[in-house]
Amino acid sequence: MKVLKVIGNQPLSGTIRISGAKNSAVALIPAALLGSGVSTICNVPNILDIDSLEETLKYLNVKVTRASESILIDTSGLENKTIPYELSKKLRASYYFMSVLLANFKYMEMSFPGGCEIGTRPIDQTLKAFRLFGAEVILEDDKFIIKADKLTGAVIPLDMPSVGATINAILVGVKAIGKTIIKNAAREPEIVDLCIMLNKMGASITGYGTSEIEINGVENLSGTNHDIISDRIEAGTYTIIGAICGNNLKITNINPEHIKSLTDNLALMGANIEIHDDYLIIDNKNELKSIDIKTDYYPGFPTDLQQPMTSLLTQSNGVSTIEENIYENRFMNVPYLNEMGAHIKIDGRKAEVVGPTKLHGCETKATDLRAGASLLIAALKAEGETTITEINHLLRGYEEIVEKLTNVGAKIEIKEI
Ligand code: EPU
Predict the structure, then answer these.
(1) Domain final residue, candidates 210, 227, 244
(2) CB of 198 closer than 6 A to ligand 1?
(3) Ligand 1 mean position to 303 CA, how many Å?
């Protein structure tokens, strides 16, 4: 079993470069299957989720060539096959394959998608979109069969601005006959990235980045070259690490606009942060004030930074609250933080954090990806050694996390026990 060992309380200084965005990459790679020929996607993070997607591509007889930060996808051999549970369970984004296979072949079969267990995570909005395009959705045991004689553009009103449902509706809409309008669409930068790539492939999409996306369907798309945007959640995680134990820590290759909801809150807390065009510098010199935060859809405070932020709030002065409005079960890091010395109470969707408290190392478990990040942040601040088990969750989403942190002075290693 692989575990992460961290000896905390080391000042971190130097530079951390942010990688390509996981949640863009996991959409753009399936999207490449909509184009005939070859696509090259660059700035791809080297994380376990991409390995899982590569496995599915190869299973579908797609030729994949990976270099250090790029992936070349040749769709000429693409076959329409049932995606089994062993592949679909590995990540949430496997359901983007549902859409691309449906768009290409008007028929697809796949088991239920996996992903972090942070709530019930229904996919009703995606299935609603498929039906509005004219498809029939059949649930057989744990497998979806989705078929259509033809896919016709439609008005798709989403009940909530779901990232996944917006992406699935885009992936089908670009090849459906006629016009599609997605209402209450998600506005995340990853959606914008996807639309830019699809337009380079020949799609006709406007309005992305707003709540109403309009698509004029086209018959064929071609391959393209595309650079993925940088990962705002990775950038936010390292920025929080800088606020808790940085000594002029420089975070480069970022888009400050994408993490504004975080940096605005850090500034309100009194953190010493300097923001430049594509980098920022942060340290832990200032005393931090308590704050009240509510997670929300983009451009609100991202749920994916709620758990990392909770670790920082253990070091601010006074009572902070953090309300989780996207997922109903995203506090699984809290019992471990409390074992490390934090004072956090959960009441429904709200956590109340009393700070500052001294943290000490202990045995912990990464129950999901961002819970792992939260425990790592606490471990970097804690006195003594922290062990984090189930670190595959962490490695699913953070490229070279041990190397990046070691380079700036952290005492951190992966051990086989
Ligand atoms: N929802 C529904 N029905 C649906 C779809 C969503 O009720 O059909 C609910 C969800 O249960 C949730 C909310 O709507 O309460 C938002 O879900 P959304 O569909 O936006 O999330 P997602 O597409 O499943 C992506 C990211 C998540 C990130 C969320 C929110 C990927 C692969 N995943 O998930 O990333 O938390 O958007 O920003 O893009 C992570 O990186 O750690 C992660 C979990």
Answers:
(1) 227
(2) no
(3) 9
Overall number of domains in the chain: 2
Please give the pLDDT value at position 25.
97
Considering 227, 254, 270, which residue would you say is the last residue of a domain? 227
pLDDT interval class at 340 (50, 70, 90): very high
Task: Give me 317's structure tokens.
Answer: 């002065």
Ligand 1, atom nearest to 125 Cα: 8
Atom of ligand 1 nearest to the CA of 302: 38
The pLDDT value recorded for residue 222 is 98
Q: How far is the CA of 79 from the centre of ligand 1 (A)?
A: 28
Which residue puts its alpha carbon closest to atom 43 of ligand 1? Answer: 304
Same domain for 174 and 241, yes or no, is no
Is residue 326 located within the same domain as residue 389? Answer: yes
Identify the CATH number of the domain in which residue 347 sits. Answer: 3.65.10.10
Question: Do residues 289 and 272 make contact, with C-beta atoms less than 8 angstroms apart?
Answer: no
**H or E element, residue 323:** strand 318-323
Cα–ligand 1 centroid distance for 284 (angstroms): 32
116 catalytic residue (yes or no): yes
Q: Are residues 126 and 220 in the same domain?
A: yes
- Of the candidates 352, 398, 399, 350, the one whose C-alpha atom is nearest the C-alpha of residue 374 is 398
Residue 195 sits in the same domain as residue 144? yes
Q: Is residue 217 classed as helix, strand or coil in its secondary structure? A: coil
In angstroms, the CA 7 to CA 385 distance is: 4
Q: Are residues 245 and 198 in the same domain?
A: no
Q: Point out the ligand 1 atom lying closest to the alpha carbon of residue 186.
A: 20
* Ligand 1 midpoint to CA 364 (Å): 26
Give the Cα separation of 310 and 379 in Å (integer): 13
| Claim to verify: residue 152 and residue 140 sit in the same structural domain | yes
Residue 328 near ligand 1, beta carbon < 6 Å: no
Which DSSP string corresponds to 354-378?
Answer: EE----B--EEE--SHHHHHHHHHH
Query: Which residue range is the domain that position 332 belongs to?
Result: 2-19+230-416
Per-residue pLDDT reduced to its tens digit, 351-361? 999 999 999 99
Average pLDDT, the chain: 96
Q: What is the pLDDT of residues 129-144, one digit of tens each?
A: 999 999 999 999 889 9
Fill in the DSSP letter of residue 311. H
Residue whose CA is at the smallest distance from ligand 1 atom 4: 123
Q: Are residues 9 and 56 in the same domain?
A: no
Residues 408, 305, single domain; the answer is: yes
Q: pTM of whole model > 0.85?
A: yes
